[in-house]
Write a structure and sequence with these properties.
Chain lengths: 154, 151
Amino acid sequence: MPFEQFWAWLEMQPLSARIGESAWFPFLESIHVLSAMFVVGTVLMADLRLLGWNARRYPVTVVTGEVVPWTWGAFVVAVVTGVGLLMPRASWYVANPAFLAKVVLLLLAGANMLVLHFFALRTDRVRLQMTTGACSLLVWAGVVLAGRWIGHLS
Amino acid sequence: MHDLAVYLLSNVPGLPPIVQTVHLLGIAVIMSSVVLLDLRILGVALPSQGVQELARRVMPWVWWALPIMLLSGLPFVFARPQRYFTNPVFGLKFALLLPSIALAALLHVVTVRKPDYRGTKVIAAFSLLLWIGVVLAGRWIAYADYLLPEE
């Protein structure tokens, strides 16, 4: 695993021990689940519009423009709490196949968002919008599945 | 039912995380429907979408998501009933869930029939807080010992 020393160093931080040995862990985890599901929920609203299955009376850019800032806000909370969850057992997480799958899927979700933002929405290409919407639904469902799977691997 | 749930959850590879993911995606649908409607009614989200139109469109999602979440939650309760029925956090989750569902039904009716009724803001605020509580309590079921250390 790359940066082995870094992950070990992260685990040694006083904050890591404080999270790992107290109710901070479940507290952060519950906030992580709440914010992550809000991310997926808002993404779902946008994706269904991209697919043309929801809110068709409003232009795509109106729906995405109003929903995506909420997605980003919740995403920041999910990342901050996620880093907190990672710290006490960083080396274990980065060697966990489900965690790695989750990271890859998150990068794919990011790439999909870039395609949407820079190509699909700019030129009003409906087919491409539908494709990015469908990809987003699948990738985010995969992120949730991989995330939930992390704890099932020993 | 107990034996079947235990058998399936321990012998079908990957079944527990898959069923839990279905349950989690149900939460995402709750967020995209009633929670976003709450935020819309409170005047902080989706300003372009009309309350009545939004409610008509997204509230049916709630009534689809809830039975799916019940079905995806039950196998775990069947498999380990003592883990849940003696767990006060599980009780708390349902104590929060029942009024959440009642308020969702009330919001659905009021927003469709009288979208301008001012009291919907109060209902939406309680609805929002209760759903947040349900999700947090749901995750805390596994950590009941932290909250209530055994004497």
